[in-house]
Write a structure and sequence with these properties.
Elements lengths: L2 H13 L2 H8 L3 H15 L4 E3 L4 E3 L1 H5 L4 H29 L1 H18 L6 H11 L1 H15 L4 H25 L7 H22 L14 H10 L1 H30 L4 H27 L4 H21 L3 H16 L1 H7 L12 H28 L4 H20 L7
Antiparallel strand pairs: 1-2
Helix pairs in contact: 1-2, 1-3, 1-5, 2-3, 3-9, 3-12, 5-6, 5-7, 5-8, 5-17, 6-7, 6-8, 6-10, 8-9, 8-17, 9-13, 9-16, 12-13, 12-16, 12-17, 12-18, 13-15, 13-16, 14-15, 14-18, 17-18
């Protein structure tokens, strides 16, 4: 969720006047509207009824009567779950198998999703939101382990990329249809609970894992966790994943309000982010397969990282919408295959292998989610002093550092 949007929603709810709220937050009214619109899309329901004469909170908006700090805690709770339990969930996947581990996580998340529709207080809402972050965290940690049992190292990046694309596609779909889903909070939350319940059943019925994925007695994670923590390449890959998230979220969360503040229309700014999201989704399917076919994947990925950073900054600076969108397309294409490639690295490390892939994936996910939480909001934006040229120059620098990471990592291909 857009954390700046939380501040703006609180102010708009207090004043019931977007112009006054925008002035008090020192942004344009257009930027204020964009943030609120993004927040409504993330939540899945409208927060305000807006006419030319007045602004009023919907029943859903009135139900979400919390302080800015409480909103921020709710918005970041699933992300912080990833920081705290990724390594544990990956280790559990090594010990009892991915299918059982993810199934248990889906049950927990389904309980949280259904309970969210009936929570009576902020504290309970925070708790069930934490529960809702469990399934995504566990699946993200164990994804590479599950796929590595079925695919070769050259194919693994593509397999992971398809899963990443599916997740991103779901997010885009939710953003597109969310605001029209329901004006009622409880009903919207119940929809989510039903979806999770169906996913839990489908996972139990259709997901298969090879016997070789589950270690034999005496070779499990209780023997080899130290190998994961001592693996320098796993740590380097984890830092790379954190940098990737910093760059990606700088575009998806910061560019649209930044462009609106520069005078770009709401529609044009939103279109730029939609283009980025759709192309990145496609790139996460297409690019890993292309990267996996190269003999020297580290150089290919390093070049893609540099090009992505340059295109990102030039796209931000471009005055023409056509030029800006073309450069954002280049950025998204280059970024598309990088995260799946990073996540596949432990599969080729002799000290990791299939037995410890879960713990390695969990370690990478832990650092990655920490980067997603910290880099855009607590590193880039504070240093830049807001959303401006420096914001995207720093984002481009993160992409440049990602190129260095790839030059340190071994080739993801075994060719």
């Amino acid at each position: 969720m857009d954390l700046n949007g939380i501040e703006y929603f609180v102010k708009a709810a207090e004043t019931l006047n977007f112009t006054r709220a925008a002035n008090e937050c020192q942004i344009t009214q257009t930027a204020m509207s964009q943030h609120i619109s993004n927040m409504e899309g993330s939540l899945g329901f409208r927060l305000f009824d807006r006419t030319t004469r007045k602004v009023a909170l919907t029943p859903a908006g009135e139900a979400l009567s919390m302080t800015e700090q409480q909103y921020a805690a709710i918005a970041t709770a699933p992300m912080l779950v990833g920081v705290f339990i990724s390594f544990l969930s990956g280790t559990l996947g090594d010990r009892i198998g991915v299918k059982k581990t993810v199934f248990a996580a889906l049950v927990i998340t389904t309980v949280g999703a259904v309970a969210r529709a009936f929570v009576p207080s902020y504290g309970t809402l925070l708790l069930v939101t934490v529960l809702m972050g469990v399934a995504g965290t566990v699946l993200n940690s164990n994804n590479a382990k599950l796929m590595s049992a079925w695919f070769s190292p050259e194919q693994l990046g593509l397999a992971i990329g398809i899963v990443v694309a599916a997740g991103n596609g779901g997010t885009i779909l939710a953003m597109m249809i969310g605001k029209g889903l329901s004006p009622d909070v409880s009903t919207a939350f119940l929809y989510g609970g039903v979806v999770f319940a169906v996913l839990t059943v489908l996972w139990l019925i259709f997901v298969k894992e090879k016997k070789t994925e589950i270690p034999e007695a005496g070779t499990g994670p209780e023997v080899g966790l130290g190998d994961v923590l001592k693996s320098k390449y796993t740590w380097v890959a984890a830092v790379g994943a954190a940098l990737y998230m910093g760059v990606n979220l700088s575009v998806s969360a910061l560019m649209s309000p930044g462009l609106v503040a520069k005078g770009v229309s709401d529609g044009a700014a939103s279109m730029t982010i939609i283009i980025f999201s759709l192309v990145a989704l496609t790139g996460s399917v297409v690019m890993p397969g292309m990267i996996g076919k190269q003999r020297n994947t580290k150089i290919v990925c390093a070049v893609l990282s540099v090009v992505a950073g340059v295109a990102l900054y030039m796209g931000w600076k471009a005055d023409s919408a056509a030029v800006r969108n073309l450069l954002i397309v280049i950025c998204a294409v280059c970024l598309g295959g990088l995260l799946p490639t990073i996540m596949s690295i432990p599969a080729i490390l002799p000290e990791i292998g299939p037995v410890k892939m879960g713990a390695a994936g969990g370690l990478i996910s832990t650092v990655m989610m920490a980067g997603a939480f910290l880099i855009p909001s607590y590193v880039i934006t504070p240093i830049a002093g807001g959303i401006n040229d420096m914001t995207f120059l720093l984002s481009a620098a993160c992409s440049g550092l990602l190129a260095v990471i790839f030059m340190i990592l071994p080739n993801a291909s075994t060719k």
